[in-house]
Amino acid sequence: MRPDLTRLRDMIDGAPELGRRRAVAAPEAMIRRAEARVGPLPPSYRWWLAEFGHGRAGRAQIATVVPVDFADDVYESITADWRLDGTRLCFAVEPDCGDSYCFALDRYGEAGDGEHPVVCRDGADGEEYPVAESFAGFLTVREALSRGLREGPNPTVARLWRSTPGVLLDNGVHIYGPDCLTERNETFEVARYAPHWVLVGDDSGGCGLFMRRHGRDRTRVHRLDLGAIDERIETNGDLMTDDLLGWLRAGGPSI
After folding, report:
1. Reported pTM
2. DSSP 25
3. Is the CB of residue 233 less than 8 Å from the CB of residue 197?
4. What is the CATH number of domain 167-249?
5. Are 77 and 64 in contact (CB under 8 A)?
6. Which of 54, 104, 204, 231 could share a disulfide with 64, CB 3.0–4.6 Å?
7. Which of 72-86, 89-103, 228-242 has the lowest mean pLDDT?
8. Could you give the CA distance from residue 146 to residue 148 in angstroms, rounded to a whole number?
9. What stretch of H or E contains 90?
10. Which architecture, in CATH terms, is 5-145?
11. Per-residue pLDDT averaged across 230-239, rounded?
């Protein structure tokens, strides 16, 4: 999924995991100079630089851009000589020989929008493993972990979050990110009335979108009035899709 930058801003504004000092937007000219050294930057990371300039995700300090006179010498600079290693561009590092996070420049994310997948290099043994499909997804996964949501409440939502912190479509369909999923489920007491289900979004018109937490059927999305929640969601609700990401790409039709 293409990162939803409106949802990304909402998540960042309320995210304790994404520590930021006062925002200092990076000038466009400075970002362009950095790109002249390391190549085109992924759009959601580029957006982050233009909006906030710097910050961290948990213990990982996120690289920034600096004036050209210091670009290759400052540790925090995305153009520091050590950050570009073949097809890996390191944009975040944990202190004390911790893990590092890199854009895989030889691959592109699922949405085909210029985003590069994010991989982690283990600080102990150097082994590499996938983390997210975009920089926005990296921030989302880190926020989800910090809130005790693992990488998502089920594999389908986890896959979505690896690209974007939820989605808000023009027709009102809203799929939640980790910043609001827990609060919405607590508000409507889903764990009490439908303990095997999770409220993953709503239609902005009084109906919730539900998926199962456990079992083999964790792909289908059902719609049900938020005032009528019980364990019989599958029977009483309307089946909307069994392919959440494809349904969202198509604009959430027939809602």
Report:
1. 0.94
2. P
3. yes
4. 3.40.1580.10
5. yes
6. 54
7. 72-86
8. 6
9. strand 88-93
10. 3-Layer(aba) Sandwich (3.40)
11. 95
